[in-house]
């Protein structure tokens, strides 16, 4: 790689950069250049971060991130480095800065499209930890296809305090039991005689707390069943649920399955009542959650998987810390064995605004959480 620029700074673009930006556009993009008028508009747009890389007064590249109000998804609309600046790490620096701006803007994903034959750009994204999640065939005027990439952002916020040991769910239906295992370990509960915190115990917990069916596939766990199972292992739970009816019945048309779900969930509710598990008929609010976490507690919270992985299925995550800006979660789901590690799914800071959208689940946007208290000090 060539010599790196000595004093590279990345800053927000100004209208005085427009001539230099046009020169870069003309140099690197044969078609589809951003016009002077659009550049001017984009530089002052509130829902965009327009970043410029400058070395000793010379503008060497830019990155443009666009936001959509009300979502945690940002889009890298364009990135470019002047010909003579390429291959010196400037693209990489711009990409990192774009990620930091997107995260500070409350986004947890950065997405982009890139021509499949643009080897330098594809290399830049792959080395930057982006994952290809789709392809648009025949996307460009010359029929070339576009690869769709995304990265889950974690910002540079260091993890807060001591974190519960992470446990990765080993099936796509055991997010609840994986959170329960993390909580049991945090509260220093031993697994029952002869068991270990492993896949066998994860599936045992699932059998103890499952609803049997979900809208599709095998059953998930709802808060009553999970609280009853946790109580059995010595973990005290409070249920916070703004849902009056039963869980996961939306879209489940099969009458027999609905009947079975009714029986199972009614039974869990009766057991929860017998066990004296408190039920708060509303969502777990920010203040209560913050206080719970400050006192060494944890919350297992149902989220709408759409914000995390573009999948509408309900999903349980473990919340273990919060501050003024973020909640910190362990997401038991690790996206892909090759591309994401447990590190990327543990201690994830989620901006409050995104979190508050995530916890509204289903067509009626209800909230459900299990608040766990324990004497574990941090
Ligand atoms: C894509 C682009 C922004 C990369 O900027 P850059 O400053 O040259 O990239 P960097 O020097 O930071 O290199 C980043 C990575 O890409 C790789 N890379 C850079 N140039 C490359 C090339 N010509 N071929 C293959 N890989 C290349 C580097 O190996 C580096 O990986 P590493 O950090 O693991 O070593 C730049 O090539 C460019 O402006 N291209 C034209 C515009 C464009 O295509 N933009 C993207 C539209 S989606």
Explain what you see:
The chain is of the alpha+beta class. The protein folds into 2 domains: 8-152, 3-Layer(aba) Sandwich (Aminopeptidase); 175-372, Cathepsin B, Chain A (Alpha-Beta Complex), CATH 3.90.70. 32% of the residues lie in helices and 24% in strands. The protein is built from 12 helices and 14 strands. The protein has helices at 18-28, 36-44, 90-104, 119-127, 175-186, 199-209, 223-232, 255-274, 286-294, 306-309, 342-345, 352-358, and strands at 8-12, 48-55, 58-67, 73-81, 109-115, 131-136, 146-152, 237-241, 279-280, 298-304, 314-322, 326-330, 348-351, 368-372. The strands form 2 sheets. It has a 7-stranded mixed sheet, with helices on both faces. The protein is elongated, with a radius of gyration of 24 Å. The two termini are 46 Å apart. Keywords: Acyltransferase, Transferase. GO terms for molecular function: acyltransferase activity, transferring groups other than amino-acyl groups.
């Amino acid at each position: 790689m060539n010599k790196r620029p000595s004093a590279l700074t990345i800053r927000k673009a100004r209208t005085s950069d427009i001539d230099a930006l046009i020169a870069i556009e003309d140099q690197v993009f044969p078609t589809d250049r951003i016009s002077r008028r659009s550049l001017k508009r984009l530089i002052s747009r509130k829902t965009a971060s327009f970043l410029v890389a400058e070395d000793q007064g010379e503008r060497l590249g830019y990155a443009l991130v666009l936001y959509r109000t009300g979502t945690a998804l940002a889009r890298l609309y364009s990135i470019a480095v002047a010909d003579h600046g390429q291959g010196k790490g400037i693209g990489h620096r711009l990409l990192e800065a774009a990620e930091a701006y997107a995260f500070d803007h409350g986004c947890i994903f950065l997405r982009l499209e890139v021509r499949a034959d643009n080897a330098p750009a594809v290399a830049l994204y792959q080395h930057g930890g982006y994952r290809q999640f789709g392809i648009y065939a025949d996307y460009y005027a010359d029929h070339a296809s576009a690869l769709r990439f995304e990265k889950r952002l974690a910002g540079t916020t260091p993890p807060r305090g001591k974190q519960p040991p992470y446990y990765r769910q080993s099936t796509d239906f055991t997010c609840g039991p994986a959170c329960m295992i993390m909580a049991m370990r945090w509260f220093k509960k031993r697994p029952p005689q002869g068991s270990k915190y492993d896949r066998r115990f994860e599936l045992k917990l699932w059998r103890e707390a499952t609803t049997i069916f979900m809208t599709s596939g095998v059953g998930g766990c709802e808060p009553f069943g999970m609280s009853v199972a946790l109580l059995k292992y010595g973990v005290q739970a409070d249920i916070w649920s703004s849902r009056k009816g039963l869980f996961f019945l939306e879209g489940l048309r099969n009458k027999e399955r609905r009947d079975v779900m009714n029986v199972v969930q009614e039974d869990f509710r009766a057991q929860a009542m017998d066990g004296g598990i408190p039920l708060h008929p509303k969502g777990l609010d920010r203040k209560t959650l913050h206080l719970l976490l400050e006192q060494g507690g944890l919350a297992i919270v149902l989220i709408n998987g759409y914000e995390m992985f573009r999948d509408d299925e309900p999903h349980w995550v473990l919340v273990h810390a919060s501050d003024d800006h973020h909640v910190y979660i362990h997401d038991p789901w690790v996206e892909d064995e090759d591309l994401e590690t447990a590190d990327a799914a543990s201690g994830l800071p989620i901006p409050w605004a995104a979190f508050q959208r995530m916890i509204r689940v289903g067509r009626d946007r209800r909230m459900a959480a299990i608040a766990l208290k324990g004497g574990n000090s941090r």
